[in-house]
Every structure is written in C-alpha cells, then in structure tokens.
Design a protein that fits this description.
The protein has helices at 3-16, 24-41, 47-55, 336-339; strands at residues 76-78, 87-89, 92-94, 98-101, 105-111, 114-119, 123-127, 133-138, 146-148, 153-158, 165-170, 175-181, 197-202, 205-210, 213-217, 225-226, 230-234, 237-241, 246-251, 256-261, 263-267, 273-277, 288-292, 298-299, 307-314, 319-326, 345-351, 356-363, 371-372. With 374 residues, it is mostly beta strands. Among the domains are: 1-75, no CATH class; 139-228, Beta Barrel (Thrombin, subunit H). The chain crosses the membrane at residues 41-59. Keywords: Membrane, Transmembrane, Transmembrane helix.
C-alpha cells in the first residue's frame, strides 16, 4: 500500500465513524516492515489489508481474503464505499466494496460492483469488484463512454487507423459484440468536437453522435434511427437540445413532451428525472436543475445556495449524488476548481422524494476534478 492510498482510506474512515486521527506515517512504516517479513515468508496477504485490520477500522476484513496485486495490478483495499455510486478522486477509484489506487481517470461508468474507466491515454479498462484490471479496448481520449448495466454492454469510439468506428463490448461474453464504421471528414482526427462519441445505451439500441448527425443503432443489424440533437436516453425517455439554453423532454409512455430551461442533460436510470444546468456564466459548474420527466415540473435538488456542484449523477432509487465545493472557499471565475480552489470537497447523497441529504465523506482538493460514475 502506498502512502497516498493509505491517507485516502484513513480520510474516508474518519468521516464514517468517530475515531482519532490515524497515525498514517507510523502505520505505513509498520506495513512496509510487515510486508518485508511476509515476502521472506512467501505469504500472500496484501499489506494494505493488514494495516486496516491492525487499526480495526473496517470490521470483517481479514488477512488472506485477497491476493496481492500482480505486476500490472494496482494496490487494492477492501473497504465499503461511503457513497451510493462509484467515484474517483485523488488517484483512488472507489468501488462498492473496494478502493483501487489508479492514475488519472477521465471517464467512469459503474457496472454492478465494478466499473469501466477510460484513462488519459485512451485505454478502456474493466475494473471488477475486487479491483482487478482488464484492458478491453482503446477510445478517443476525452470522449465519453456509454454503458447499460441491464444489457451488460459498454460502447466507445475507437479512433482507428484511418477512420473512427463505434465499438460495442459485451461484458458477459467478454468480447466485442459489434462494430460500426463511422463517417469521417478530416483533415485530422482526435478532437471530440470533430469526431464521434456514444451518447447512451438503452434497450437494444446504442445511441451515438457522429459527424453526420445523431443516431440510434442496433448491434443486431437493425437500421439507423435519426435522433438529431440527442442529449440522453434512458428507459425510452428522450432528452434533446431545443436551442442554446433549452432542453426537450419526451416520454412516450406518458405521452408527454416538454421544453424546459437547461444546458446539457443526464437522465436517471429509470428515466423518471433529468438533471441539467442553468444557462449563464457557471458553465459546467452552473446551477443544477432537476425536472420530473412525467410532469415536467422542476423539483427540489438538495443543493444549497453557497454550493458549487463540481459533479452530479442521478441514481436509480430517486437519489442524486453530488461532489460539491463551498462557494466562499473559491475565488471568482469558472476555472477555480482546477486552478485555485483550496477548500475540501464534499460527497453528498440526496433523496429527491424525501427531500433529505446526507454527507458521505469529505476529501481534499488535489487539482484534478473528481468524477462520479454514470
């Protein structure tokens, strides 16, 4: 276990239960000494797990419950995620039952106890619930992933040698399910604005943005469906752009069609809610707006007046998770989070129907933006 991972885990533990500050340096030094002795004895326990057991922070974790990382595998600590969603911050990926030390993560989708990530080099990596890594493809760096836990599919755009192609990977079969060559007009490839990217996976359809428009495509060979302006789709609920600062919500099951204020959109897994940002100077950190897709009504968000929402994602149980910064801790300007914000982040979960929120944890700012899984 590295000191960085130990510090991250101790910080999470301190927010979960009332314990004194952990002697990180002393414990890490002890773990290193133990690790040297175990190597001489050819044991197979993970140093990080012994540190956790020694402190008694997480009941039920015991030596030998997990093999040591291989030469290409990162350090892993078995620990319960304090939040309801997978997340990445400070070079640590937090899964449902494990914390994995990982370098810079750019894209993150949750699938069961594990996740699929896109890293800064464009590698698409499956991380199982125990923290083991398997590289399954390569995508345009900076372009998003799209996934469906129900289908067990992950989609991305591979830059290819000469032109991009949409790739759909079946996690259960552990193989590429289908690919589709995409139109490409140069002179150069690699920019998200000039390229293509997946938008969503819903039912048996993969929705993607291409240089020739936005489309729904069936990997089983079904024809293309024109969905120009698509922002997201989930459980057959569709959200499209309706101008520079408006979104259109279409839910066929309830025969509703609303146009509301917003920039960008993210639907909940069941399609009941849509999260967007208010137009204005906040940009990607602008005010959060949430609408009920059945009634079109704007609903309570759980965001306080001085909160700056750095990341947000809707859950399947009527919840929403946020990473928030405290407004008074940051200077003016939209780049504060990356450049000059000095206060801690808060990871918060709010239940929309109950109008209640709880803090999962607080963690320090290190310059890289935290990421919540979709």
């Amino acid at each position: 276990m590295t000191q960085e991972l130990a510090e991250e885990v101790f910080a999470l533990a301190g927010t979960a239960i009332d314990v004194p500050d952990a002697p990180v340096e002393e414990v890490v030094a002890r773990a290193r000494s133990q690790r040297r002795r175990r190597r001489r004895a050819a044991a197979a326990a993970v140093a990080g797990l012994l540190v956790v057991v020694g402190l008694g922070t997480w009941v039920g974790t015991r030596p030998g419950s997990q093999p040591p990382p291989g030469p290409d595998q990162p350090p892993v600590v078995r620990v319960e995620n304090p939040a309801a969603v997978a997340w990445w911050a400070n070079d640590v990926l937090h899964l449902r039952h494990a914390a994995v030390e990982m370098p810079r993560v750019e894209d993150l989708v949750q699938l069961g106890d594990g996740a699929v990530i896109g890293d800064e080099d464009g590698d698409v990596v499956l991380v199982d619930g125990a923290g083991r890594l398997t590289t399954i493809g390569n995508k345009v760096a900076g372009a998003p992933l799209a996934a469906s836990e129900h289908q067990g599919w992950v989609a991305w755009v591979d830059p290819g040698d000469r032109a991009p192609r949409l790739v759909v990977y079946d996690l259960e079969a552990a193989e590429v399910l289908a690919t589709r060559d995409l139109p490409y007009r140069g002179p150069r490839w690699g920019s998200l604005d000039e390229g293509s990217h997946p938008i969503a996976v819903d039912g048996n359809q993969v929705y993607y943005a291409g240089q020739d428009g936005d489309w729904g495509w069936g990997p089983d060979g079904t024809g293309l469906v024109d969905v120009d302006g698509l922002l997201d789709v989930s459980a057959a609920t569709i959200v499209k752009a309706a101008g520079a600062d408006r979104i259109r919500i279409v839910q066929p099951f309830f025969s509703v069609d609303y146009v509301r204020t917003g920039v960008g959109a993210q639907l909940s897994p069941g399609g009941e809610h849509v999260l967007t940002r208010a137009p204005g100077g906040g940009g990607r950190f602008g005010k959060v707006l949430i609408y009920d897709t059945r009634s079109g009504e704007r609903i309570w968000t759980g965001v306080r007046p001085q909160d700056v929402v750095v990341a947000a994602t809707l859950g399947s149980d009527g919840s929403v998770s946020y990473v928030v910064a405290h407004g008074p801790d940051q200077p003016q300007g939209t780049d504060f989070v990356r450049l000059s914000f000095t206060g801690p982040y808060e990871l918060r979960t709010c239940h929309l129907g109950e109008r209640t929120c709880s803090r999962a944890t607080k963690f320090p700012h290190t310059g890289a933006l935290p990421i919540l899984a979709r």
